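User: Hi! I'm working on a homework problem where we have to compare a predicted structure to a textbook description. Could you give me the structure for the chain below?
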Amino acid sequence: MQMLLEESVLEACALATILLGFFGIILKKNLVMKIISMDVMSTGVIAYYIVIAARDGLYTPIVTKGMQQAYADPVPQAVILTAIVIGFSIQALMLVGVMKLSRDNPTLESNEIERNQTL
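Assistant: Happy to help. Predicted structure tokens:
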């Protein structure tokens, strides 16, 4: 019962992190804050996958002689590592784009940049 409650609390925290990042992307006007919000959201998704993968009774998938246990599936762990690397590279690419925008525009507010582009 205690373990189920802990998993539920961790899942709720991960989902709250995802929602916090999602609303940050929608509500923030500064481009750097949007990138940070996207990072918060991806961190929440990764945390949610970790909570799901860390079920009770499963062990790390390292095979040893004479031990027959229930192992966790290693594929989600590999997918999460790939997601972390891809997320980092996307973040770096977006920051380069923001740096190029900042050369042409005096502000990083998205509505100001859109207004300057339409005039």
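For your comparison, note the following. The longest helix spans residues 74-104. The mean pLDDT is 86. Good luck with the assignment!
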